[in-house]
């Protein structure tokens, strides 16, 4: 006689979990990348944030762009999936999904969310890279490569500077 199937709730409770975030790679007509400067942590970042419970990553990225920049941008192709292990105060791994937000033709439409952001800037790619925290920086080159090759990139968390 076989054992009864486990209770689904009990079984799911035993599985590991991760935090999920999503962001967008946006550029302007001069091919400069858009970064935002949060006021609640050091360094710059891509527009985006934590995906809410039950929310699809592409929907989370679009919601965050509206909240942070006041512009509605459709999430295009998936560019990067970036997994990072637990680190410091974050007890679980994090999976970030970067979507192509395309070219923002009219940057004057941006309305910065002052509650969370101090600045927004379109920057040359090589100027943007050193402004990103070490654990986020690999997404910049990966996002650019994915756009050029029209093929998503997977970034494992064991890359130099990718932890945390």
UniProtKB/TrEMBL annotation:
Keyword check for Hydrolase: yes
Entry keyword annotation includes Hydrolase: yes
Listed Gene3D superfamilies: Nucleoside Triphosphate Pyrophosphohydrolase
Domain of life: Bacteria
Database matches in SUPFAM superfamilies: Nudix
Domain (Nudix hydrolase): residue spans on this chain: 16-145
Necessary cofactors: Mg(2+)
Keyword list, A-Z: Hydrolase, Magnesium
Membership in a protein family: Belongs to the Nudix hydrolase family.
Protein name in UniProt: NUDIX domain-containing protein
UniProt source species: Streptosporangium vulgare
Lineage: Bacteria, Bacillati, Actinomycetota, Actinomycetes, Streptosporangiales
């Amino acid at each position: 006689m076989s054992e009864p199937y486990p209770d689904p709730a009990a079984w799911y409770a035993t599985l590991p979990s991760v935090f999920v975030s999503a962001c967008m790679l946006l550029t302007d007509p001069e091919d400069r990348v858009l970064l935002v400067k949060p006021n609640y942590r050091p360094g710059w970042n891509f527009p985006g944030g934590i995906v809410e419970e039950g929310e699809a990553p592409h929907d989370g990225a679009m919601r965050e762009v509206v909240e942070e920049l006041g512009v509605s941008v459709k999430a295009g192709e998936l560019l990067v999936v970036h997994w990072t292990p637990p680190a410091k105060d974050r007890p679980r791994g994090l999976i970030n999904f970067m979507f192509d937000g395309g070219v923002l033709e009219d940057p004057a439409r941006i309305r910065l969310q002052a509650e969370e952001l101090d600045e927004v800037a379109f920057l040359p790619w090589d100027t943007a890279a050193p402004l990103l925290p070490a654990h986020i920086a690999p997404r910049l080159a990966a996002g650019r490569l994915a756009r050029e090759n029209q093929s998503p990139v997977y970034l494992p968390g064991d890359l130099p500077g990718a932890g945390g």
